[in-house]
Recover the amino acids of this structure.
C-alpha cells in the first residue's frame, strides 16, 4: 500500500500509540513482579497500581487523539488534545487519590517509581519515533 504525501492511514496513526501503551503495561507488570519478588506483596501491588495510574490515563489520551472526528482539521485535533490532556490529568489525580484513600498498606517508593518509569517510557517513545525506519511513500502525485 502506498501513501501519498500529506495523507496518513488510520492504522499508521494508532500503531505507535498502541505500541507505547503496551510498552507501559509491560514495564508496569515487569516492575510489579520485580518489586513483589524482592520487597514483598505490598511493594508488588503498589508498583502495579503506580504503573496503571500512568497507563490508564495515557490510554484515555490516546483514545481521544485517534477517535474519529466530524471535522478532520487541525483545530479539531488540537481541541481533542486539550480535552484528552485535561482528562488524563484528572484521571491521574483521581487514581492517586483513590489509591491513597482506599489501599492499605501501600508502599510509596514502588508506587511512584513505577509511575515515573512508565512516564519516562512515553518520553523515550517520543524520542525514538524519529529513529524508525522510513516507509516507502509515493510522492510522485500519480505521475
Amino acid at each position: 500500500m502506498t501513501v501519498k504525501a500529506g495523507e496518513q492511514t488510520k492504522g499508521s496513526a494508532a500503531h505507535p500509540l498502541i505500541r507505547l501503551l503496551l510498552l507501559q503495561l509491560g514495564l508496569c507488570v515487569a516492575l510489579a513482579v520485580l518489586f513483589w519478588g524482592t520487597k514483598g506483596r505490598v511493594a508488588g501491588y503498589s508498583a502495579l497500581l503506580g504503573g496503571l495510574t500512568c497507563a490508564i490515563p495515557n490510554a484515555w489520551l490516546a483514545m481521544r487523539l485517534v477517535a474519529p472526528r466530524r471535522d478532520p482539521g487541525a483545530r479539531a485535533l488540537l481541541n481533542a488534545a486539550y480535552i484528552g490532556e485535561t482528562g488524563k490529568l484528572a484521571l491521574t489525580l483521581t487514581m492517586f487519590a483513590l489509591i491513597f484513600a482506599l489501599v492499605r498498606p501501600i508502599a510509596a517508593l514502588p508506587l511512584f517509581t513505577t509511575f515515573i518509569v512508565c512516564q519516562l517510557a512515553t518520553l523515550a517513545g517520543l524520542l525514538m519515533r524519529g529513529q524508525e525506519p522510513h516507509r516507502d511513500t509515493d510522492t510522485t502525485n500519480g505521475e
Notes: The chain has one domain: 12-129. Residues 1-14 have pLDDT under 50 and may be disordered. The longest helix spans residues 10-39. Helices lie at 10-39, 41-66, 74-102, 108-129.
